[in-house]
Amino acid sequence: MNFLDKANSIKAELVALRRNFHSHPELGFEEYETSKKIKKFLETEGIEYKETAGTGICAIIRGTGNKTIGLRADIDALPLKDNKACEYSSKTLGRMHACGHDGHTTILMGVAKILNSMKSELKGNVKLFFEPAEETVGGARFMIKEGILENPYVDCVIGLHVDENTEVGTIAVKRGVVNAASNPFTIKIKGRGGHGAHPEDTIDPIVIASNVIIALQTIVSREIPPTDPAVITVGSIHGGTAQNIIPEEVTISGIIRTMRSEHREYVKKRLVEIVSGISSSMRGIAEINIEESYPCLYNNDDMLDLVENSAGNIIGFENIKKLSSPSMGVESFAYFSMERPSAFYYLGVRNEEKGIIHPAHGSLFDIDEDALPIGVAIQCQAAYDYLSK
């Protein structure tokens, strides 16, 4: 079965789809037109689907066996101006597919077209997950809650992400932990306001907040092993209205990123202890809110073996790059990896000769569209191999 030939035979369609999505980006849970285009495509191909998580879609290609594999693509864009000068640049001001989700969506549609055309040869089912709001709240968790991993039961899930640091024609894989977990937090420190000339009559929340910010960094530097990545970032601090007024309160917000579940729980606990302790010792009051956001993304060894073997048959094993370090970024595919054996890999889209070198989440981001049929072929091969073994 030569899936690369099949994918290359529809390359023009893939490029057209991707450019259409790129020109008309939509933010998380606002992907109404994107969703309509996907559903119209599925209807044309005769693939059954259901709506999920608002603008998300779960489609299924039914084969002849009992096993079911899930394949996922995210469909949302970012709130960013597209500064590329090309025919397919964003037509919506302040919206851009700056992370490659247009490519992910296109690849999964290509996979749907090819696998559906040969569904009588599949020894099981293929579920296609088009996930909304990956960049914000993680649509995967809402899809899972609505039962997309059941009826029929999904045995495993595979996902990919385009990567501008990996050359087109290659992929990159990481065993074990692939992405960090995250916990956004907000801290409100309340004191007693007053005149800047008479601090003795006040409880200065700015001074308290300053001590809190410095102390939080010691959790990572002195309480987490140096061999285990962790980050506490304070991204904003707001308080006060004038130079000579001590305010009533200060609000701090930031995010925790950890690579191990036990560290995630430990850092959250210590943040509360440190913030509460410093605030009370300096006569202030702290209100702390820590959100439960994306978990760690774990690659299952057996599933990654499957992806590597399938990809090796498409691009050659010498074109599989092994990553030694995880990313401190988060990825909502992690919700799937927490529920089922999963594999997540990076599809190379970099091409210096074409000037495709700009970073994701940047206003000049683009992909080498030669990667589209490669991604389609690898996903098809992996699904076919899993159901056939």
From TrEMBL:
Pfam families named among the record's database cross-references: M20_dimer, Peptidase_M20
Domain Peptidase M20 dimerisation: from-to ranges: 185-276
Gene3D superfamilies reported for this sequence: 3.30.70.360, Zn peptidases
InterPro entries (alphabetical): Amidohydrolase (IPR017439), Bact_exopeptidase_dim_dom (IPR036264), Peptidase_M20 (IPR002933), Peptidase_M20_dimer (IPR011650)
Superkingdom: Bacteria
Endpoints of the signal sequence: none
NCBIfam families, alphabetized: amidohydrolases (TIGR01891)
Full protein name: Amidohydrolase
Lineage of the organism: Bacteria, Bacillati, Bacillota, Clostridia, Eubacteriales
